[in-house]
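tool_call: predict_structure(chain=1)
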Amino acid sequence: MADTPHPKAPETVRRAIPDHALESVWRAPDRFAIRRIDWSGRQRDDEAPRGSLLFLPGRADFYEKYLETLDGWHRQGWRVTALDWRWQAGSGRYHRDSRIGGTHDFATWVNDLADFWASWAAASPGPRVLVGHSMGGHLALRAVAEAKMRPDALVLSAPMLGFVTPVPERLQPAFARFMCRIGDSARPAWKDGERPGDSAAKRGLSLTHDADRYADEAWWRERRPELDLGPASWDWVRKASESVMRLAEPGLIESVDVPVLTLAARHDALVSWPAIARAVARLPHGELVEFGREAAHELLREADPVRERVLAQIDCFLDRVAPPRFPS
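tool_result:
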């Protein structure tokens, strides 16, 4: 059972790569270099790992933002790995302007994940768990739904299954295509923040109520400038809306035959709560934990009362659906 709590860690934990974690690079089949970080599991050789956990961050994210949580899972005995996405964080850029986020196709990311999972799972003791936040949750769910991989359990934190925007859902792909046609599709879709209309000042309120944890992100961007990524391009918006529609296809999410825990905030300013609730209802083994106005988008980086509840729900879920194969 998960008996190690997840207390709020000091800045020395959130703002330093732990000595027992290893940063390295994974080469995709096309030789593209993708950054990763790994914790080996239990410290003693005579202790079996709790299992293996792969964490996937969101758009414009980087794994340094989640060191507190990742190291906490490691302290519980998990072998933990986190992976950057191609074209963001420490894994390069798609556009010449390094501040603009883009992608060739969301399928490229899905295939990267499937290829990485194949090699990672072969070398990682079970049970094997996939955890995805925001865009990472979207891509994790799509990879599993398309039968490109099969974890023992899937955890989705504020998954990007729809967007908070004045544009009606059914019109979003057409609107994004229109915006690509009337100008350079590589131009940024907004100026600041995390969505059109947001200012840099409002960005923090959209992500977390914890000012200290929010400040960690700027601290890392200052010390590792390669992590900095700004708004997405209109082409990214178009491809994101098309990928959301892909997940909406009848029968796709219904084919997911693994346990799925989804945690989301009803008043998330970035991703659509109704879209998340509809998707979870379609999952054969889906569970939904909802939060109110006390929670913003980054649930794993929220203030302690919310974050502790998030982690406790994940712990209970994994103890139930993916228990240790070799209890210690």
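agent: The chain is about 35% helix and 15% strand. Proceeding to next step.
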